[in-house]
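Slide 14.
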Amino acid sequence: MKKKSKKKRSSIKRDYQKKKLDNPFFKKKEGGKKKRWWRLWLLLLLILGFAVIYLLSAPWSNISSLKVNGLGRLPESAILESVNKQMAEPVGHFFKRENIFLFNTNEGAEELLKEFNFSQIKITKKYFPNELIINIQERPYAFIWIEEGKTYYSDSSGYIINDQEVSPEDFGLLPVIENQSQKKMIKSGNLVLSEEYLEYIFNFKEAALKYPDLTISKFIVPQEDVKNKSLRVLFTDGLLAYFSINSDIEDKLLALEVVKKEKIKDNLSNISYLDLRYGDKIFIGNK
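Slide 15: predicted structure.
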């Protein structure tokens, strides 16, 4: 009986030693594999960093040429000079905007718009060879504005254009509008004139071409007249006439022509002004 019990205890002991008694909550750390992965990631980041630095500093990634399209009045050299200044600006401590990958086309277009008052600018990139293509849309001249003895070109919306001085030849080709009030009407590069007011002037200028005896010298818009929607027109023969921008242009021009022929005749030097702002009535101001 005693021998059997010894064998049984020894077999139980052997079975107990063969079992795995690892605690699942205290697993051994796999530090070796994790260290290898971190080293690999660090190496990849270093390679990527050196590649980016090389890409942003290599001479072959710089802008090699500039192409300008759409200019009609301004010389191309002015645009090239401005863009070259932008390209020379630093980006951080080590790079410049002359790199094709660092040049921001939207910022470049905005800077050109501020400097030259163009209607629209779009800059695109072309790679290998690296080139900037600058497409420009100039503002068309609609009229000449005079204020405080200075002359300006303006587009049809009243945006002042400062790209060049007003040519004397254009005084006979474009409508001339003069501010004779003491207050400036140019604010932040725009005229304080409504679209309605400007449209009436353009239509008046066009309609007056049908009347050879009513050649316009210039339109005069003191600020108080703008508020009252009144317009003064000075004709080349010296006649000054007042109109309302709410009136029919054709009717007023026809009435003015009749008054000149039938009432004023050769006595124009004695007339100070004609006022056609009040319906069918025409008031004559004598000197």
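Speaker note: Residues 275 and 281 are 8 Å apart (CA to CA).
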